[in-house]
């Protein structure tokens, strides 16, 4: 208790108290209003939130919503299950390259390619995860780091997928529900990503309240005890890895369809670290926390241009400071949710 | 696949492998020593090495070499080398101690999880790389050629040149000194005691925080000396030079058995040779992929490496 008192600035608990007291109508209204605001964001022309150099709607797509989607995916791996993945960008790259190669060389359109992009990223998750997840902590971190770099080096050295120059003239998504996806307007991409992000959030929340979520939590808290208590640790770690990978692949495919040309240099270790910084800053394990982290860390360098040149310096410093001062992030997860729910 | 270079240059590739291995060894010892006392991979160690190369570069810059003058006479070169190697050792050692205080100490005393320490170290590593990227303006910093690199001794395809001899002889001297420190000094005894059993070491009156600081200092000094050799051999550095060198050195430490000093040496020379021979066959572009594949294979097949974790019984 003393520890909880010490961190008085705890957004999650303050909001959590209100949420617990609200009835279901209040909750539904709150959800609808919040989601409505997010869909309306690109329509707003507010000089306060506008970014000085790039148009606000393109900042909304990249980095804000893209970072959020990837942070939610990485949060399943790092935050929920405690697996430190330093090569998350690999899944993003695989998704992007899958969309680029398939849309150029086959008649498939964006919507048909999406499942493939996710499937290839999941497959990569299995190929890397099956051997690597037998290892613990820092070894696993180094292996995933290596994997991220291998994917990039292979892309640079493989002429069939464009080599170092990458791929250009990637077709965008075909129109759906009367919405056209053009090069000039990033807003439809934002709406598309937001819709998919909401679906992903819904799926992840469902999972975390069920058996996989409890297994992940047990693994994160103490892997040996979890295994001893009969949790199939490798299986659930692998699932976390695959789900995280699928979300990364999804984000990559959308990204490639929007920017229309990709190069291996877009998928460096820096991106993995930025997404990790979002997760750490917002609060590992809490889905709303990591989105808050992604929004703040994506928005701050765009709004404050002096930050953008120094963003990696700033992110690196932030990771050290956060770990030392507030190791659980801005909005930490509630500990032992399930235990508390049952004891009520 | 082209084996012709491998066959024609077998001996000179082997010599280069040993030289590269000696440089890796100096860096991988830092990983291994810190792992021994903390059971933690010091993720920012590659940046300690990078800072060393930067220190060497800036010291040599003070002499005003343009890179076009005649090679220095041997005695003068050794004097300058000793100067910049000492500066690099001091700078790297100092930054390693500072790193431990900033990124690890508080977390360790809080009893934080390994994940927290790791993230903190990664943050520190990125911070350092980016600071030096700003300082160096993202450029490759080229080092003037100070020493005559023409082979002075040739047997078949084996070309012996002064820089390679310097690295091999210099590294051997450092290893002998390290052996002395670890096995015959009070500090070495402290390091071995903490590696073996931290709690018992505390009970026996060992000041663990001080031993950890000294271990970081020792690792940093070795990386600093390694960076001096690296600069003589490769003659270039950049802000993210530490990443691939660090991964190679780490792979070498794991290959030999992390936590094991002798293992780090054997692993480094083995990795140096493997890298030279495989890049002769597959092409230089694939060298780092090969390194990663070796790392993954060792961790999967024999995570304790060739010699296992046994710093307490280590002989250099």
From TrEMBL, chain A:
It is a multi-pass membrane protein. Keywords: Cell membrane, Membrane, Transmembrane, Transmembrane helix. The keyword Iron does not apply. This is Unannotated protein. It is found in: Cell membrane. Pfam families: BPD_transp_2 (PF02653). GO terms for cellular component: plasma membrane. One of its GO terms (molecular function) is branched-chain amino acid transmembrane transporter activity. Its main location: membrane. The chain crosses the membrane at residues 29-48, 60-79, 86-107, 113-133, 189-207, 238-257, 269-300, 306-325.
TrEMBL record, chain B:
It is a multi-pass membrane protein. Pfam families: BPD_transp_2. GO terms for molecular function: L-isoleucine transmembrane transporter activity; L-leucine transmembrane transporter activity; L-phenylalanine transmembrane transporter activity; L-valine transmembrane transporter activity. Keywords: Amino-acid transport, Cell inner membrane, Cell membrane, Membrane, Transmembrane, Transmembrane helix, Transport. CDD domains: TM_PBP1_LivH_like. It is found in: Cell membrane. Belongs to the binding-protein-dependent transport system permease family. LivHM subfamily. This is Unannotated protein. It comes from freshwater metagenome.
């Amino acid at each position: 208790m003393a520890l909880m008192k010490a961190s008085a600035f705890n957004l999650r608990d303050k909001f959590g108290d209100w949420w617990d007291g609200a009835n279901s109508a209040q909750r539904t209204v709150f959800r609808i209003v919040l989601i409505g605001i997010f869909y309306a964001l690109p329509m707003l022309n507010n000089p306060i939130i506008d970014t000085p150099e790039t148009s606000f709607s393109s900042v909304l797509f990249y980095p804000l919503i893209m970072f959020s989607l990837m942070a939610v995916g990485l949060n399943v791996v790092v935050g929920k299950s405690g697996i430190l993945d330093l090569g998350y960008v690999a899944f993003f790259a695989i998704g992007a390259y899958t969309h680029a190669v398939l849309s150029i060389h086959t008649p498939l359109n964006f919507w048909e390619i999406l499942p493939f992009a996710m499937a290839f990223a999941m497959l990569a998750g299995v190929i890397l995860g099956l051997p690597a997840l037998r290892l613990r902590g820092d070894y696993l971190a180094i292996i995933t780091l290596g994997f991220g770099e291998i994917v990039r080096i292979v892309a640079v050295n493989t002429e069939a997928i464009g080599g170092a120059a990458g791929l250009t003239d990637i077709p965008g998504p075909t129109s759906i529900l009367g919405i056209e996806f053009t090069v000039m307007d990033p807003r439809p991409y934002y709406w598309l990503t937001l819709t998919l992000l909401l679906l992903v959030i819904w799926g992840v929340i469902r999972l975390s309240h069920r058996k996989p979520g409890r297994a992940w939590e047990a693994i994160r808290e103490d892997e040996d005890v979890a295994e001893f208590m009969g949790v199939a640790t490798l299986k659930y770690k692998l699932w976390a890895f695959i789900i995280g990978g699928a979300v990364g692949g999804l984000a990559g495919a959308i990204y490639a369809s929007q920017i229309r040309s990709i190069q291996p240099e877009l998928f460096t270790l820096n991106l993995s670290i930025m997404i990790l910084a979002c997760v750490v800053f917002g609060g590992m394990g809490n889905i709303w926390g990591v989105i808050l982290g992604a929004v703040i860390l994506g928005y701050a360098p765009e709004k404050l241009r002096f930050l953008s040149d120094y963003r990696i310096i700033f992110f690196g410093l932030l990771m050290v400071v956060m770990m030392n001062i507030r190791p659980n992030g801005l909005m930490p997860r509630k500990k032992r949710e399930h235990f508390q729910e049952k004891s009520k | 696949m082209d084996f012709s270079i491998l066959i024609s240059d077998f001996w000179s590739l082997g010599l280069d492998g040993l030289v590269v291995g000696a440089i890796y060894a100096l860096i991988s010892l830092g990983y291994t020593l810190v792992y021994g006392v903390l059971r933690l991979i010091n993720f920012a160690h590659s940046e300690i090495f990078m800072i060393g190369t930067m220190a060497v570069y800036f010291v040599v810059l003070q002499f005003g070499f343009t890179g076009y003058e005649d090679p220095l006479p041997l005695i003068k070169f050794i004097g300058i080398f000793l100067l910049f190697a000492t500066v690099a050792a001091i700078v790297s050692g100092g930054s390693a101690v500072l790193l431990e205080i900033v990124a690890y100490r508080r977390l360790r005393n809080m009893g934080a999880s390994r994940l927290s320490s790791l993230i903190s170290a990664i943050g520190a590593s990125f911070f350092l790389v980016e600071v030096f990227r700003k300082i160096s303006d993202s450029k490759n910093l080229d080092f003037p050629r100070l020493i005559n690199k023409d082979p002075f001794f040739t047997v078949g395809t084996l070309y012996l040149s002064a820089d390679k001899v310097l690295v091999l002889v210099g590294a051997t001297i450092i290893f002998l000194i390290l052996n002395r420190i670890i096995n015959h000094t009070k500090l070495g005894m402290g390091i071995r005691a903490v590696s073996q059993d931290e709690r018992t070491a505390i009970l026996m009156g060992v000041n663990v925080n001080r031993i950890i600081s000294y271990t970081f200092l020792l690792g940093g000094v070795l990386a600093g000396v390694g960076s001096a050799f690296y600069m003589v051999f490769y003659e270039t550095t950049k802000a993210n030079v530490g990443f691939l060198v660090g991964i190679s050195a780490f792979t070498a430490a794991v290959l030999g058995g992390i936590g094991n000093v002798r293992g780090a040496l054997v692993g480094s020379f083995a990795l140096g040779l493997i890298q030279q021979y495989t890049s002769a066959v597959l092409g230089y572009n694939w060298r780092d992929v090969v390194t990663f594949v070796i790392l993954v294979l060792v961790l999967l097949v024999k995570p304790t490496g060739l010699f296992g974790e046994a710093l307490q019984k280590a002989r250099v």
